[in-house]
Specification:
By secondary structure, the chain is an alpha+beta fold. It has a single domain, classed as Thiolase/Chalcone synthase (Peroxisomal Thiolase, Chain A, domain 1). 28% of the residues lie in helices and 21% in strands. The model has no long low-confidence stretch (mean pLDDT 92).
Length: 94
């Protein structure tokens, strides 16, 4: 986890995010969290949190992110990504 700059988790609730941070031995400040403002937006929670972090400049190009989500039953997914700066409009994109 030393190579991961940010964790962008599914925004189900703060209790679950805090428990994940504790179990991963990571400080809360490494997690992108917006559930307190936008609530649980279901499947859109990771993309919304990621978009906000990119637009605000909190996440910088070439930083490494862990995106992780879960759903009903035993469904889950995770991906490690690095945003890149594009020449078109000088925007940061995945």
């Amino acid at each position: 986890m030393d190579d991961i700059h940010w964790v962008v988790p599914h925004q189900a609730n703060r209790r679950i995010i805090d428990a994940a941070a504790r179990s991963m031995n990571l400080p809360d400040c490494r997690f992108i969290v917006n559930v307190d403002r936008v609530a649980n937006t279901s499947a859109a929670s990771v993309p919304i949190a990621l978009a906000e972090a990119l637009e605000s400049g909190r996440v910088q190009p070439h930083q490494t992110l862990l995106l992780v989500a879960f759903g009903a039953g035993l469904t889950w997914a995770a991906a490690v990504v690095q945003p890149q700066r594009t020449r078109e409009n000088d925007q940061t994109k995945l």
